[in-house]
Amino acid sequence: MKILIIEDEKEMVKSMSQFLRQESYVCEIAYSAHDALEKILLFDYDCILLDINLPDGNGLKILEKLKESRKADGVIIITANNSLEDRIQGLNLGADDYLAKPFYLPELSARVSAIIRRKQFGGSNKILFREISVDLHGKIVMVNDDVIELTRKEYDLLVFLLANKNRVVSKNAIAEHLSGDNAELLDKFDFLYSHIKNLKRKLADAGCEDYLKTVYGLGYKFSV
């Protein structure tokens, strides 16, 4: 799952990104409204952590741009500003939640997880697809009630494909989801092919049908 942190306090960004990466999230950073706007127009995120008070503008303008662009990214407003008016305005502009500084990092992670579940999986902690079961809270994958061991990238890949089941997703979209900003530096998709190959093998070894199809010239599709 891919997170965008829009925050100018670098020590806070460091602690947030370190904690969330330990929770298996891919984190990208924007220290200004200008950088944030560039990123949200180019990429999709599972959740955006947005500080309202930025050095070059009000974070609420970013919410307005998201709304204008009809983007479905989840948004949590993170601010030291306790103004009720700002919180109401942010929620009216499409934010899903807000969190006042200072906050505990486990609470931040729990709120991020809740928004992703609500937006992508109907609020459930579990994804069920035929013989596949994924426990989002415990990050446990089962096939026919047997646990299979996946790497972090394989797990992220499977959840991303299940979130987009029955839709074709491009290699670029998958690479960006798995690697964040680093995907822009990759000239080849060898790392992606390796993760897909390993995931397909582990699912097959567990007795799972082959639901991951290559759509030549376009990308991949996870479907019956």
From TrEMBL:
InterPro entries (alphabetical)? CheY-like_superfamily, OmpR/PhoB-type_DNA-bd, Sig_transdc_resp-reg_receiver, WalR-like, WH-like_DNA-bd_sf
Transmembrane regions: none
DNA-binding region listed in the record: 124-224
Ranges where the OmpR/PhoB-type domain occurs? 124-224
The yes or no answer to whether the keyword Transcription regulation is present is yes
Pfam families for the chain = Response_reg, Trans_reg_C
List the GO cellular component terms: cytosol; protein-DNA complex
Which segments constitute the Response regulatory domain? 2-116
Q: Which keywords fit this entry according to its UniProt record?
A: DNA-binding, Phosphoprotein, Transcription, Transcription regulation, Two-component regulatory system
Q: What is this protein called?
A: DNA-binding response regulator, OmpR family, contains REC and winged-helix (WHTH) domain
The lineage is: Bacteria, Pseudomonadati, Bacteroidota, Cytophagia, Cytophagales
